Amino acid sequence: MQVKAILFAFTQALAALALERRDPPTVLTAKRVYHTIIEQSPFLVEATSTVVWTQSPSITEALPTDIPVPTID
Predict the structure, then answer these.
(1) CA dist 60 to 26, 44, 68, Å?
(2) H or E stretch including 45?
(3) Angle made by CA atoms 44, 67, 61, in degrees to the nearest 5
(4) Span 2-33, pLDDT tens digits
(5) Alpha-carbon torsion 52, 56, 60, 61, what sign?
(6) Long-range contacts (CB closer than 8 Å, 24 or more residues apart) made by 15-19
(7) Strand (E) or helix (H) holding 37
């Protein structure tokens, strides 16, 4: 009975060591700068929106995180 337990533990340890090492998923960032009109002077400003996603196998559709807000420099 002990031989089976030792053999089982050895097999599990060997299987754990044989697992393929994976690189961490790639994180990608894209920034979009666009012109927009606001109600205060200078009326034409640049607004930005940033999209960040992680590259991985997935079947779900990505959802936007927030609405871009114009800023005055």
Answers:
(1) 17, 37, 23
(2) strand 44-55
(3) 135
(4) 888 888 888 888 888 877 777 777 888 999 99
(5) positive
(6) none
(7) strand 26-37
CA pair distance 20, 54, nearest whole angstrom: 21
**Claim: this prediction has a pTM higher than 0.70:** no
Dist CA 20 CA 25 (whole Å) = 15
- Residue 31 confidence (pLDDT): 92
Contact status, residue 47 vs residue 67, Cβ threshold 8 Å = no
From the list 71, 69, 27, 73, the residue with the least C-alpha distance to 49 is 69
Alpha helical stretches, state H, the chain: 2-17
- Please state, in angstroms and rounded to a whole number, the distance separating the CA atoms of residues 57 and 20: 17
Dig out the tokens for 73 from the structure: 């420099």
